[in-house]
Batch of 2 targets.
Target 1
Amino acid sequence: MAKTKTPPKPEVAQLTFRGQTIDLPVIIGTENEIAFNISNLRKQTGGVTLDYGYLNTGSCESSITYLDGEKGVLRYRGYPVEELAAKSRFTEVAYLLINGRMPDTKERAGWSALLNQHSMIHEDMSYFFRQFPEHAHPMAVLSAMVVSLSTFYPELSQHRPNEPEEAINFAATRLMSKLRTIAAFSYKKSIGEPFVYPRHDLKYCANFLNMMFGSPVCPYEIHPEVVKALEVLLILHADHEQNCSTSAVRLVGSARVNLYASISAGICALWGPLHGGANQMVIEMLEDIISSGKSVKEYVEDVKCSRGKTLLYGFGHRVYKTYDPRAKIIKKTCDRVLKTLKVNDRMLDVALELEALAMQDEYFTSRNLYPNVDFYSGIIYRAIGIPKEMFTVMFALGRLPGWIAQWKEAREDPRFKLQRPRQIYTGPTKRHLLPEEVSTGLVKAPRVRRQPTIQPIGPSNS
Ligand code: ACO
């Protein structure tokens, strides 16, 4: 008789609490990442997990981006980001993230044509731009304009569980194309210049540069090195698994709100100085160092003494405990752009000095604080002519395909539930209002039952 092989027992972790032991299924990813599935924890033990900042919490299984913070590895759909930055265009990488594979020649041409076709925004939207105050931050404008797309294109505004795939793809393409136009218009608005409309003969990045720096009477002279640098920057920002803004997109999307509203929420999260807003903060920090006349060494000492109140912006990362692989590429690109454009920026010297000092300082090395994606990107943007208020808008432009891919992936996952964390309540236990805590007039006076008046028996007066 042939021996039957018993399948290996699925691996479990065990948790013992108050004398009871429960099994937690182990989930192993394709890169051998390990997770303990605690989906039934509360049912089985009555307890929940507590994890400030979600340092140990996985919120989903995802096949989009792999990142190893200890080794400095970043891959989109399996492709190393270094390879994509060297050999691909941003729109191809966007296609890869959203569709899961690189486009073939026909798909590339089709995708490019679609992006061109949807690049105009409704003319009425241009009136919105005019109503924002003169110094409105472009990130606020961007977020507002993106959510307002759902008023112009309301097809996806109502959640329909069986929304056809084409409708979602259509909305995603429309957003990819229009965000570029909205970003450029928000810059034009901020400097009071007339809008420059998208052109069909230009590719995505060149088109954006023309809308930013061209004028209706004078087209912008597009430098191939600048286009290449922009392609690289957008590719490097295109996705970064479950970071703060992407988690915001997924969380807001979990209420089944439409794509535009979810992405608008992501844009707001990205704006924060601890996240995408750090690129603007880096340049402001470098400006402060230069204008204050402080030496770089003095600034580094200030950071160290401040106990976390003054930060070295563009340094440190929640996941990377080594040099951010994106920062390596950006640093090289920065060198190349500045040389080609013959820009001599004092800020680059200060940034290089800061990095060199921090890399030898025990405070930074013991905490694994290395330059992140935001440390050198602003210096490239400055060289291209993009003002610092627009840096995070550039980040959003790059991150958009990642947000779309993550929103779509979540939506297609049958396990995608309304995201609603638990808490551990630490407030007072049950108590009651004291008389002096009750506003007069809010409590009705107790009803006094009137004694029925007894009519004397006898002839009535009437
Ligand atoms: N400068 C000085 N000290 C820092 C920095 C920094 N940039 N980053 C972290 N530290 C210190 C903290 O004060 C803390 O010190 P302690 O142990 O003495 O208390 C220690 O390093 C650990 O830092 P945490 O804040 O606990 O680390 P966390 O993972 O929560 O923070 C973060 C990551 C928010 C990115 C942080 O490094 C930071 O604020 N960096 C500056 C802002 C920035 O560049 N953000 C962009 C990140 S990339 C992106 O989101 C696109």
Target 2
Amino acid sequence: MADAKRIYDRLKTLSAFSEKNEEGTTRLSYTPEYRRAADYVKAQMEEVGLQVREDAAGIIWGRLPGTDPNAPKILSGSHLDTVRCSGFYDGQAGIICALEAAQMIQESGIQLKRDFEVAAIPMEEGARFPNLSGSKLAAGLLKEEDLDQLRDTEGITLRQAMQSYGLPGRLDGVDRSGEPVKAFLELHMEQGPILEEEGLDVGVVESIFGCYWKTITVRGEVSHPSTPMERRKDAGLAACRIVTDISRHVEEVYQGRATVTCGKMRFHPDEINAIPSRAVFSLDFRSGQQQCFDELDAWLEEEIAQVERAYRVTVEQEVFSNTPPTPSDGAVVSAIRTAAQELGLGWKMMSSGAGHDAMIFAKVWPMGMVFIPSHEGYTHSPKEYTSPEALARGADVLYEAIRILDKEN
Ligand code: HGY
Ligand code: MN
Ligand code: MN
């Protein structure tokens, strides 16, 4: 059985590799704190006896060789980066529980037929570079030329960030999409309250909600706050109108089938006594049905046309990230479900509202996810918490699922 204390101690140690911030853990990709966390993960993998390599994208792969090097391998892991002021379970629990499963395999003395590899992946969160870029590099969905196109919020290109992090700035050997893989498994905290409220140990994820990010730029005219209301071209007010209108629309029409969030908004010139000439804000759409995204696209076009007329501004929108709703692989789901049943755990089939690296790997390999409870659903917050016992039960399910998948043809 998994060692709850060992798992928790590794997570707690990881949590300290953080930029100084108001609260919680902040570890953006390719930063000095990311480097310290990566070095710690590599050292723990070596301690477990894995063959460790860091590829040209900074992805860490810890390999436990199987008896048949040609058998399609089993991969498991998650992201090592965090959003700002986060907890230390999102992503990290998936890496450390996969490492625990590897250690359980080692300690049990069993020999897998298939290679088993543990992965620690950068750039899953969009806190620095576009989200899911690390797994997209491993899945061959981002190419060398993208390294000069993708920029962080300071304008640094991905290639520059990789090189200053000590990587070659090229992608030799990163794309693993052509390799035979039996399953990519990702353990993740639920990031919702359902498992805890229903007193269950495990969520067997059957699909992952799509994730659709837009940047909206509103342009008006700067003028003095004494300008009469009817004569303004107030980009800030127009932006707030779009956000409140689309939020109300989604709440009234989609009732839980979709969500929309404005997490970032910047005004220019950003002065108390100047009517904003420009407002730039984000919209994050989530839904399990592609049709909802399509409908909201059309609705937003209409909304923008009305706001442009009403506020005498111009509005542009840019799709920043677009990953459709993604089903898990039936055979992998079945292995996870059987593992939970054999362990006598409480489990349920469920969808994931949050996005994950697994939804990118699903484009090239069979994918499945193991959810473990999130205390009161907190996530992207220092209040994030999953008990050591729940982490250990998740690692047990991962271990059993690996053994089931290993025995299959
Ligand atoms: O945004 C998400 O769904 C995930 O936390 N990256
Ligand atoms: Mn997250
Ligand atoms: Mn995550």
